[in-house]
Amino acid sequence: MKVICGKDELMKGIQTVSPVASSKSTLPVLSNFLFETEGDKIKLSSTDLEIAVKCHIKAEIVEEGGITIPAKRFADIIKELSQDSEIEIKADDTNQINIKSGKSKFTLMGISKSEYPVIPEFPKENNFTVKKDIFAAMLRKTAFAVSKDSQRYVLNGVYFIAEDKHLKMVATDGRRLAYVVTDGIDAKIKGKAIVPTKAVSDMLRLISGAEKVEDVKIGIAENQCAIEIGDITFLSTLIEGVFPNYEQVIPKKTESQVKLNVKDTLTAVKQMALLTGDRLSSDRSSAVKFYFGSNILRISASTAGLGSGEVEIAVDYKGEPAEINFNPNFVKEVLQNIDEDTVSFEFTNALNPATLAPEKDKNYLCVVMPMRV
Length: 373
Hints:
Blueprint lengths: L1 E4 L1 H11 L14 E7 L2 E7 L3 E8 L1 E4 L2 E5 H10 L6 E5 L4 E6 L2 E6 L17 E5 H12 L13 E7 L2 E7 L3 E8 L7 E6 H13 L5 E6 L3 E6 L2 E6 L18 E6 H12 L14 E6 L2 E8 L3 E8 L7 E5 L1 H8 L6 E6 L6 E5 L5 E5 L5
Antiparallel strand pairs: 1-5, 1-7, 2-3, 2-6, 3-4, 4-17, 7-8, 8-9, 10-15, 11-12, 11-14, 12-13, 13-25, 15-16, 16-17, 18-23, 19-20, 19-22, 20-21, 23-24, 24-25
């Protein structure tokens, strides 16, 4: 194999696939990425056996072939090469890789591409297209609520549901839930998938780098979910199991509704969070108190041996005085993902779940359980 390409194009491909290469795998070949010619382009592929990514870059193909290349070492070398010089990459039958750029020369040892795992193709059926910005926003609006408890593995990902011209995403850790929906997908598509947190993070990484692409193609198969972004294909195995009935968690009726300014409430919650304990704790020291009185919301916190504080916000509230305690980080993460100036806060009492949703966007909803103190 012999190819010639520019540094920018090569770095773009390396940055796409190398984060997936596993440096801690017991299989040495998984520390490499697959570098092979395909037509008049180079195809780069990488997998850790759970997720995989493929992309194409422009190049001059002198001699066809393929090899697996140590991901980190190769990336470090290419990064330090001169910007102006073309880069020549050769591989021979002994799996030796020669890199030449200007007066710089390097030799690396690769592994035969025959030892690299076969990466599945994008599903030819059961796929649909969503606007890139909408898809990315849906991921961000749900990923923060995913459970980090490995024992509750079915909650360690974002739940995708494609049906009836809608794509829904749900995430929960048992104490808060995020739900978002968009319409306009292919009416024939039906599928459900629990996509692991790591895969969601990689999807967001790849989308953020695809500035010139407007749409994302999504495919759901029996044991995998895949997306296509321009010339990049990303695939992930799914979390096996049955996702809980999230609809039962969303309150059908609440007794009180208050419109809150997102910026003011977020600032107040952040301030009071400075006076609480461990963000993952469920004891009293990790709670902030929401007190609703006549046209006022008072957010306060008090921790023995640390201190106390409170912030008052003017609100349009005329109901009976109410007091609810929340983990401040749960409320903060919801508010950070609301793109409007006003959030609708609905609750019943100090024991039942509260809901937070943008005032105008009816396609996004979060549920937060109160804390008992």
